[in-house]
Write the structure tokens for this entry.
Amino acid sequence: MTGFYSKDFIIESSFGQYTLSSFVVYIIASISAIFTTLYSVKVLYLTFLSNPQGSLLNYRQAHEGNLYMTIPLIILAIFSIFFGYITKDMFIGAGSGFFSDNSIFIHPSHEIFLDTEFGVPTMFKLLPFIFTVFFFIIALIKFEFKLELGKSIGFSKSIYHSIYGFINQRFLVESIYNIYISGKIFTMGEEISRVIHRGAVELIGPFGLEKTLLNLGTRLSKLDTGVLTSYALYIFIGLIFNLIVPYICLLDNSLVILIIIAVFSNSKK
């Protein structure tokens, strides 16, 4: 299919670097292509070649789509099958001018197309394709004749289930990731949420603001002594403050803040 040509070029390019790390990437990418083939064969076999396993009532109601459904699928199928083969040289060919306007810029030190195209041996170019076809046939035979490869090799049931569980769990990568990486991150996130969101943020935000306003209201309510001379003193202090503040602001605004802090600190005492 079309995706094969892009994936094949990526595998060839990894070998075309001619370094140890690129050769390791070439091997890993080839193995991943083999596993892609295996599960793709299973999907194709169960869909088109195996006996139906669903309800007979559902199959009796199945029917072909109309032209409005069929024609777009035919067009998509043609592009999906042939577009990669037809346009490979146009997009990434040695003489292609498709990206001549530098819409995709590749630094000369990273340009490996010539080494990939003319330097990689043909055997290593065809090796992923050979493996793909070989394992495609092996998987098809296995599904058709329902072969138990583990039993035919001579594995015991416990070893067979251990190997199956190891592969089925993605080589334990997901388990290790969930336990030692994502699990630790979730735990750290819970602690951060508890300390910051439900701790510091609450103290500074809604809970702290409510508590501060209640305490301020309680202290201000204590000024209501019911004595006339106290009210006269408050009026006098407010008048003096209103007269002094404009002159203080002309000198330095920080003095106003200091006075306010001093008043509140005295009120706490």
